[in-house]
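Entry for the shared binder. Reason: the reviewer on the internal report wants the predicted structure included alongside the sequence.
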Amino acid sequence: MLNYLKRIFVSASLYFTSITFVYALIIALVYGSTENGGLLSAWRTVMFFAFSLSFAAVNGIFYKFGRRVLAVLSHALLTGVAFYLFMIFPAGIKGSTAFVGMVLYYIIYALASAIILGLLSRTDRKKEREKDYQPVFGRKKAE
């Protein structure tokens, strides 16, 4: 149990750092160096960490069930709910803007998932090819 919690907190910390960095970079590009805009609020950083924790916890689906279609779909659904609860709802975003935010989230999710699952599939195939030959009928491989 302790290893599981440790894995969740390490993953959440990595996600939190990435999310905060990307957000701060976007804000800096939009607002520049103006004094009155673009500050990263304490409440928003708390929501970033809550989302990161939930995202890391939901990753347990992949650890338990592998990369099956149902696991990917349930991961997408649960992280989408977490995104809404911790990023959109607390910001007071409503209506079509919230819908656009969710659509953007799922587009980014789909792109990232396709890249990650493609890379994992490639490494799995490479590992499978590099496995030692195991004889089926007890004979040794001719060298």
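Summary line for the report: The helical segments are 2-31, 42-58, 60-65, 69-88, 95-130.
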